Amino acid sequence: MHRRLSTWSYVPLCGYALIVLFPLVWLTYTSLKSTPEIFLGPWALPRAPHWENFVHAWQGSSGEPGLGPYFLNSVVITGVSVVLILMVGAAATYSLTHYRFRGSELILNLFTSGMAFPIFLAAVPLFLLLNQTRIPGLAPKGFTNHPVGLVAVYVAYSLPFTVFVLSGFFRALPRELGEAARVDGAGHFAVFHRVMMPLARPGLIVAGVFNVIGIWNEYPLALVLLSDRERFTLPLGLAQITQRQQYSVDFGSLFAALLIVLLPAFAVYLAFQRQLRQGLTAGALKG
Q1: pLDDT digits over 179-215, tens only?
Q2: What's the CATH number for 74-235?
Q3: How far apart (Å, rounded) are the C-alpha atoms in residues 74 and 216?
């Protein structure tokens, strides 16, 4: 009886998997179809693959840019942001969990409470703050429409979630290891960098994967803080292409552009799915 119930429990899981995977499969083969094929047979397979859809989506057409420049902007901004988020978040979490002082728990709770702050309430104040912050030689006209300003906003807004995720991992690390390393002559930074960071690697992978996916797909803050088309990130570039393709009637290139945007985040998840699953399980047990 138990085995029969266990077998039937896979039925809803398989149904859920089909619901999740079908849009991705449909998007993949639709991106290889021409515009007439999409309208005449939206669910049918392509008669012949139109690989030129990806070329048009990447390089652009009719004098308009494609996804290429926006893709590079997103790679740089996402990579720099995630590295800074993990560095600052790990250092802050380690300091607040392993060095007990008056107010440490309050500061940690204030960090995590930032997750409850809606992003839309921060958009206008952030725009005004960055617009009035000027550094000669770097941003003489302010940090709006500047990649450094966008990276700083992403780092600040992602720290609450990162600290929340990492706090369970760093709290579980035994303090005796740090004390033994200091007895051997290691300084505070050496203990953090050489002892604690490798042990907290599962938590860093979990926080890194979620931050990569979140920043890669982020749209509202980039829309508010960036106005120069050459500095657009991938979501903004995709919105521009979507508006343009509605008038040029090239829906094959539009679906190809959607697939190009989706694949990097999907590849990151697939590459770290085992570590992500193990890290989430360990974090749940340790938290």
Answers
A1: 788 887 878 888 888 888 888 888 899 999 999 999 9
A2: 1.10.3720.10
A3: 7
